[in-house]
Amino acid sequence: MSKLGTLGAKLYNGEVGYDFIGKRKLWYGVSILITITAIVGLVVRGLNMGIEFEGGAVFTTPKTTVSAAKAEEYAEKASGHDAIVQELGNGGLRIQVAGVDTAKSDQIADELSKDMNIPADKINADLVGPSWGETIANKAWQGLAIFMVLVVIYLAIAFEWRMALAALIALIHDITITVGVYALVGFEVTPGTVIGLLTILGYSLYDTVVVFDSLKEQTKGIEKQTRWTYSDIANRSINGTLVRSINTTVVALLPVAGLLFIGGGFLGAGMLNDISLSLFVGLAAGAYSSIFIATPLVADLKEREPKMKALKKRVLAKRAAASAQADSGPVVGHQAEGEFADEPEDAAPAGAGPRNQPTSRGRGRGRPSGKRR
Amino acid sequence: MATPKKSRGAGAQSKPGRALSLIVIVMVALVGGMFISGTFTPRLGIDLAGGTSITLQAKNEPGKPNAINKTNMDTAADIINRRVNGMGVSEAEVQTQGNDNIIVNIPRGTNQKQAREQVGTTAQLYFRPVLTVAAGAPAAENSASPSPSASSGDKATGKPTDKATDKAGQQATDGSSASATPSATSQGRAVTDGLKADATPSAGASDKPSAKASDKPAASPTPDKATSALQKKFTELDCTDKAARTTVNEGAKPSDTIIACGEDAPGQWSKYILGPSEVNGKDVKKSQAVINQQSAQWVVNMEFTGSGSKKFAAITSKLSAQQSPMNQFAIVLDGDVVSAPSVRTTLSSNAEISGNFNQQSAQDLANVLSYGALPLTFHEQSVTSVTAALGGEQLHAGLIAGAIGLALVVIYLVVYYRGLSIVALASLLTSAILTYTLMTLLGPAIGFALNLPAVCGAIVAIGITADSFIVFFERIRDEIREGRSVRPAVERAWPRARRTILVSDFVSFLAAAVLYIVTVGKVQGFAFTLGLTTLLDVVVVFLFTKPLMTILARGKFFSGGHKWSGLDPKRLGVQPPLRRTRRAARPVDPKEA
């Protein structure tokens, strides 16, 4: 792990780094591809809605010796849907099955009566309405919409509208992917799933906000220098927060992976799987989108600004000039390890050779600059 | 939120012990609270703990043959859902079954009796003018007035609410006979007076009645019979008998004149003859249980809708001009008189129901009124206990998986952050204790129940909590990479980490708050959990992680940059020989970056 520690240092110092911004087109492409797959999956296969959303049938049996687990097996075999089985106070069972109409429910009742050895007329079959109902689901969507509007407003105030827009796009991207995976895998959508999805929203944005916060800080006073373009700094702030992003994602994913693989492995499909799958996919997508989508989008939008365009021009001009006269000096490679206004120079590893000092030294943080050396 | 005050960082840094002892006190208090309340585990939702299943069947009512349809059933299910979930955190489930059943599943540990009362209450709320009042049991006094005068009697059975213009010659008779009424009214309790009283409006002091009392007795040409029947019923009614109370109003329409009972004090009943409904439950916008400052008793406050306010103003201005007992209006809930206040002035947008309430019953009534009346009447068909739908093994597997996941997290943190992981783990532990105790205490307090999704949410919350101090740790390490020694690094890292944590937690909290306000049922319960964990995250980071870090940074292990401290400059890529000693000697620089 100490390697990761030094990697962290190198990332922080800009010694190593991945050019997220430069290769953004590639990642946009990847995301578009995933999104299209998700949408196709959604359209072609559709979502497998649970009983809570579309209603179904409830079978009530008289007192029986068949265990709840066994009955669940029978019911799932007979219907092809997930079944929920509860024992009633009188020793009977209540078996709920999603997506069943009257004809189908009669057939299931027949099969259940054979499997469970109960006379068919003793099994009481009833259709149930969606307990979660359209109202509740609709309200959840409505809440989501209001939240998105508010969060965009908040981010636009706390940061700026470009970041708000990018965060929103990343968020929608995450939701699409998660829902798409659901359609493709074919798990039943239960209230648990929806709640898992809602959890992701907060988390995905949380991640994005942390990167944006660093970006905002690092680009303070960007126009006063001519070394870096906005994209360069955006790339640096992604790399600088990369270790944090990896750590937080690992820490969040580990328990969820535990739920998904270990918990699910013990029990096969079930509520735990439903929830942890949506969480797992969503958390991973959230981490991915905050790095590969949200920040590059901000950089893209930002570079359209005349101010930033002008800056880019100045920077490029300066670099061209520098490379013209730097054939002799060991300046090569400094672009990667240099730092922006905010950092003291001693962070760079010794042995990196002579360094290009930015002419502006407005970074003493209140210290008399004499003390630094 | 995004730009915290500078002074705070300095304050927290100078007295880290205070914050730590504060949070310890809070934890001790919460654990103590658990002992006092006697509950040591959070209440589980119905999917994990099972509970009670109530089947309600819609009753056919006379005069409403097609009332039982899908729309009404769905509306009823929605209203019942809101009622049983009050705060939206109790995880009760409501669904329609078949054509005329509604199943309500209530998790174990809920106050079942109360819940059953709430789901079944139809909450047909009417404000009716009081025509007469008598003691609840049949008394000699009442039976002493056997026959009301015919003319005034008309009115009582008639339909005074109909605002048709005067129609019949009979009207005139009504008026004249009624003019005599006020004098009789002083006796107050006699049935005849009461029945006459209805006629009073047409001739009484106030002029409203002329509009109001343009009854159509003409339409009911044989009032005598009806009146005497009503009166007989009233005389015979024994309010202390529950069966009699429920049957007396059966089939009555809001526009009818009815007889009803009201309990003034436990066991003490009054009976009333009440005029047609003037304002009903649909006119109530919001309702809330409060303590009346003057009487120090629980009352239910209602706020009317726009049209409700107008109607209410009309009835109160009319009633305020009357004499006792006709200056009262009765608040009738499902056929029972909850309260019959007398009116002195015209009121409009607000009303207060006072009555024989305690905190619970006032809140129940407010809850029922707020969410509206059920469109149908239900009777309880069966009540049975049900086991957990998911079975214990799901929770069990979830907890095992969660524990394994947590162990992996711990290993990861220890390997990566070394000594710092002590701070991380202690923070996680604090957060866990706070979350657990709060959830446990909120069970009895507001009916909070934890279902499987919420358990998963809590497991994910580990990640969100960890996020905050990972942000902080990475900041500290960045500062050390810049060549600072540990103590100043901690203090300089804090303001920046704090801002990041607050901004991102605010986003999480916003999500939770919006969902909590907008949605109902399980989503609301989840939003509550999310909001709670987010708030606790902020509390833990501010009052625990940061102060602990400040204290530890004073110790040699961390400030010396021990190999295992997680803050070893060498590991972080700093070349140690540079100015380390001089830097350490420099006073802490609290200036914000």
Structure report:
The complex is a heterodimer of chains A (373) and B (593). With 373 residues, chain A is an alpha+beta fold. In chain A, 64% of the residues lie in helices and 7% in strands. Chain A has helices at 2-13, 24-44, 51-54, 68-79, 102-116, 133-158, 161-185, 191-218, 230-267, 271-302, 306-325, 334-337; strands at residues 48-49, 56-60, 83-87, 93-98, 124-128, 188-189. In chain A, a hairpin with a 5-residue loop joins β3 and β4. Chain A is elongated, with a radius of gyration of 28 Å. Residues 330-373 of chain A have low confidence and may be disordered. Chain B has 593 residues and is α+β, with helices and mostly antiparallel strands. Chain B folds into three domains: 18-43 and 387-571, Multidrug efflux transporter AcrB transmembrane domain (Multidrug efflux transporter AcrB transmembrane fold), CATH 1.20.1640.10; 51-122, Alpha-Beta Plaits; 125-136 and 238-373, 2-Layer Sandwich (Gyrase A, domain 2). Chain B has 23 helices and 13 strands. Chain B has helices spanning 6-14, 16-37, 46-49, 70-84, 112-120, 140-143, 150-157, 170-179, 181-185, 191-197, 200-203, 208-212, 223-236, 242-248, 306-320, 359-371, 391-417, 420-446, 452-481, 486-518, 521-554, 556-559, 580-585; strands at residues 51-59, 93-97, 101-107, 125-135, 258-265, 268-274, 279-280, 284-291, 298-304, 329-333, 336-339, 350-354, 377-386. In chain B, the strands form three sheets. Chain B has a five-stranded mixed beta barrel with strand order 4-6-5-11-10, surrounded by four helices. In chain B, strands 2-3-1-13 form a four-stranded antiparallel sheet. A three-stranded antiparallel sheet of chain B has the order 8-9-12. In chain B, α7 (150-157) crosses α10 (191-197), α18 (420-446) packs antiparallel against α19 and α20 (486-518) runs antiparallel to α21. Chain B starts with 5 loop residues before the first helix and ends in an 8-residue tail after the last helix. At the A-B interface, α1, β3, β5, α6 and α8 of A face α4, β2, β13, α17 and α19 of B.
